[in-house]
Amino acid sequence: MNKEGTQFDESFPHIFVVFGASGDLAKKKIYPTLWWLYRDNLLPKKTIFFGYARSSLTVREIREKCTPYMKVRPDEEQAYEDFWNINYYVSGAYDSRTDFEKLNQEMCTFENGLHANRLFYLALPPSAFQSVSVNIRNACMGQKGWNRIIVEKPFGKDAASSKALSDHLASLFKEEQLYRIDHYLGKEMVQNLMTIRFGNRIFNPTWNRENISSVLISFKEPFGTQGRGGYFDEFGIIRDVMQNHLLQILSLVAMEKPVTCHPDDIRDEKVKVLKSIKSLELDDCVLGQYVGNPDGKDDDAKMGYLDDPTVPAGSKTPTFALAVLQIKNERWDGVPFILRCGKALNERKAEVRIQYRDVPGDIFGGRSKRNEMVIRVQPGEALYVKMMTKSPGITFDMEETELDLTYNQRYKEINLPDAYERLILDVFCGSQMNFVRDDELSEAWRIFTPLLHHIENNDVQPIPYVHGSRGPKEADEKCDKSNFKYYGSYKWNNSKM
User: Fold this and answer.
1) Active site annotation includes 454
2) Global confidence as pTM
3) Distance, CA of 17 to CA of 52 (rounded, Å)
4) Residue 263, preceding bond cis, omega within 30 degrees?
5) Are 116 and 47 contacting, i.e. CB atoms less than 8 angstroms apart?
6) In this prediction, what percent of the chain has a pLDDT beyond 70?
7) How many Cβ atoms sit within 10 Å of the Cβ of residue 115?
8) Which of the residue ranges 145-159, 310-324, 356-370, 435-449 would you say has the lowest mean pLDDT?
9) Model confidence at 112, in pLDDT bands (50, 70, 90)?
């Protein structure tokens, strides 16, 4: 769509600065993403890149760290060399204005002409946000064009810390300069939710409490913390996945049609939905923590969460959580929205399941199963509608089948971009559509903060579940009580993935 936020300033210099250039996020996601955008000619021609970190490194050393993640094809070697030739690195402290002034001087040497733009990516731990953002404001803001700041989660740990961070950033930058990145908003099928809902007459009229029994939004990982539990333990699965990724998906599923596709019109509707959700209580949830599976196929599967040496002894941090949210508005009153996420489960999957009500006036003796629309985010992007049909043959039996849009079948020749590619390109273009606004963030923390404080202040014991299982059986029971029916009889054709 040719609208605001879909074009960038092609003819002007752009400087992209990665703070935390020596870290994991930079080498695994940011530098590979910048390379892919450069390779595909999706960036302004006059773009250069600066890395900044405390470590005394060279560009060559950063390149070596990134190599396993860059996915360079044999015919791209020259372009790859050209990419690294426009990368630069400055070493400095995060709390030193003098070092930031040195970075600014380096950048100024590339800003010829009357106009130049700057982008700053804060790939940093929260402890460094404040000093870095102050020094950017005081020493690194470009004077010839716009400045945009990309902030990586976590955006605080609760309502108070999030507000403190938001107030701090608001004191330094305008809201339109801030891009709070939640990479799930860049996923293909998450982005497709708007079109599915509002571009199809067949779906949107049934998208309400009269037709839908429940909505289940899931995020499942088949592996545990794998020796990196120290960071995870500080946040837990609710802060790591549910309060941000899953709640963002919920707001897109449940929001009303925006007035236009303008980013603020869309985000206005997302905020209205969040305002209609009451804060969570412990009774709305099931919390779990995985234990080792003695019959596991590898060492990770045999280790429980507490066996990870980086996890504090006796930790009660949940590695699994299921929460039932209620949206108190005319469209959704009485429809449970179930958020479920966990580590060390039976599969890798992220999806939305919109389950329809039972067919009234059943004439098939209870054999008919509920319809479901399933939007699979990963792996293997797909949209399919589960429906009942007569099974082929002479008998009059019924079976579950699907109307199916599996992307790797329908779009075999299409290379889907990584979520970070979309989002970083959005920042160049100035589109805020897929980024989190400050009032969205405030409402999200309002919903979850009382629950998080209750868990921590009352030493809540999570339910053990075995590595590689579906999670605690109490979670399935909670789904059943929340009007989501799991039959276990539907068979997905694996050849589609």
Assistant:
1) no
2) 0.90
3) 7
4) no
5) no
6) 96
7) 14
8) 356-370
9) confident
Length of the chain: 497
Task: Tell me how far apart the alpha carbons of residues 238 and 280 are, in angstroms, rounded to a whole number.
Answer: 12
Closest CA to 162 of 431, 447, 434, 423: 447
- CB-based burial of residue 118 (10 Å sphere; 0-12 exposed, 13-18 middle, 19+ buried)? buried
- Contacts (Cβ under 8 Å, ≥6 apart) of 451: 238, 279, 280, 281, 282, 284, 285, 323
Among residues 14, 245, 262, 454, the one annotated as catalytic is 245
pLDDT tens digits along 150-197:
998 878 888 998 899 999 999 999 999 999 988 878 877 788 888 888
